[in-house]
Structure prediction request, 751 residues.
Amino acid sequence: MPEEPIAVAMSGGVDSSTVAALLVRQGRRVVGLTMQLWNQRRFPQLGTGGGTGRCCSLDDVYDARRVAEQIGIPYYVVNFEEQFEERVVKPFVEDYLAGRTPIPCTLCNNYIKFDRFLEMADAAGAQQIATGHYARVRYSAEAGRYQMLRAVDGSKDQTYFLFGLTQAQLARTMFPLGEMTKPEVRELARSMDLAVAAKGDSQEICFIPNGDYAAFLSAYLEENGAEARRTHGAIVTTDGRTVGEHAGVHHFTVGQRRGLGIATGEPLYVIATDPETQRVVVGGNQDLLRSRLYARDVNWVSVADAGTGLRAQVKIRNKHAAAPATIRRAGDPCRVEVEFDDPQRAVTPGQAAVFYDGDLVLGGGWIE
Amino acid sequence: MQYVYFDHNATTPVDARVLETVVACLDRTFGNASSIHYFGQAAKQRLEQARRQVAALIQASPAEVIFSSGGTESDNMAVLGAVRARTGARHVITTAIEHPAVLAACSQLEREGVEVTRVPVNGSGVVEADSIRRALRPDTVLVSVMHANNELGTIQPIAEIAEIAREAAVLFHVDGVQALGKIPVDVRALGIDFYSVSGHKLYAPKGVGALYARKGTRTAALTFGGHHERDRRPGTENVPGIAGFGAAAELAAGHLAADAARIASLRDRLERAVLDRIPQTGVNGGGVPRTPNTTNIYFDGIDGEALVIALDLRGFAVSTGSACSSGAVTPSHVLTAIGLRPERARASIRFSLGISNTAEQVDALVNALEASVTHLRRISVHA
Prediction:
């Protein structure tokens, strides 16, 4: 066979389409693969989501195929629905029921997009893969490892969802869009006449139409015959007063203000949820502040470990502005204590804490 | 890169002589076969010639051949049409390894209040006639069994089942899509009521098929319109496609025996070489009569989908048998029905040969298979 191909993960969106077209323009041999992860017709009662925030729809596969045809590359749809359900959707549901607020995209990256997909790339004879993620990877001889950096376009940076990538995965991965801004990518797509150049960005979680988590959870549990569990409980204040009722802890996430259905003088926020007692604890804004958190299953990316303590900026949700903190080992090497210089609002179990040093992604873990 | 085709059960290339017929018909015989004038009559003549050609291949009388858009429509016309024509119809028998065109039509009947029994098959992929007999009820109106299975090539005991159906005065439909052109078909000797066929499985174009409906049988209409095809299938006839089907049927009638022997020897060469050279492989549904062109082989420890892609990139077209363009979610219902565990069903590949395949192509395929399977087994960590 001629020169070794690069496998491009094509979702049918503008980013991954541009990656494929760009590599072809650079004279590389490319194989396009679309991962079929979820059957969008599985829960018709949830509606169509208005066409946004969807993946794996027939329209997306159509678009990806059309781009592949346009740029003249072999193209295949590979079905990972079973693995996606097992490694992403099920843990997502279990996390929610356990009172955590999970991030399925990170699980998908760790176990599907950079794991099963690499195997499929192997099958296609491709050592390297490329995706449309906004992030940068480089090999540092000094550090003796692959390092990940924030994308040049800070507003599109996706490193928060990519902290779980191992060195072996990073060694095979290219993020050609990491150096570009989104407007530049669109312009490039237009200049190459890609049919998807004007297509909207995907939003929210791909398998949940309209971002309605609670409706998805209900539909999923009903399908699995598991809705027998108690779904309502009390809303209590930090000092133990019952102030209302709710229809299930999975409707609430730490820091949430709306949807409590309580009329009080001062604004109330969700401070914590307890699936055992089905209690939702509410309080004032100051009750949400925390200066310390523990993260488990830490993956170190650009550095080998926390050493004797690490100064970093730590991001605790995707939209959070990373805050200065000190990171220390807490027990085993995969668990750390993060102590913020200033208390942070709404530290949410189940979300990721990702550690940065400027643009460098040091690593990250799951908030306990 | 050279591309070699080993997926003839999915579809076949159009034979050069068939192509000539179709093009000539598109070019000159454009009339509507229902029209009174010269142009209409020419089209009608072409249509009836094709009907005789297709009827001759299955030993039917031309009046018993209804042209359709293909195998799926023919299966639906027979299954839905025959059952709906019987008021108070309660029960239908089919098998676990039918094509979705039959299985989904049966599911539709269930929604209409008809009970359906799907009889299992044995480990070789053959339905035992006795299990059809045991499934019969006083209110059974139809039995539907395929002649040859699309994934395994296994040939079903149609004559035996026909006798059982006849004794019970139950209609018998046979999906012959994967048999026509591969093995001799004699609907009279088989003693059946309906037989579905499709053009593109025997070197005719897609979009044309036929249903043999034995004289005296009735079917309820599925679509409504004109009086075409003896009131059984309305719509202006696809004369060029039908003419091509006729030409392909005539070619098959002439060459079937010789082609079958040659293709079977290539198939056996492929099987032998794979089993000899690649460890942990085996034939699914082997050891029973099969269509001469089909083999289904498992390669333990690999993902069939990955192997199909790897082979395609080396220029060889094969299929997992259960393939659809957006990938199969569950392992093939046919392989599951013969008792394969899911991992082995997912590790299985269907090879279906055709008239243009050569021994050199088979040898090249085996080389590519050996290389790809070795590579996939080396990298596989999840299988």
About this structure: The longest strand of chain A covers residues 332-345.
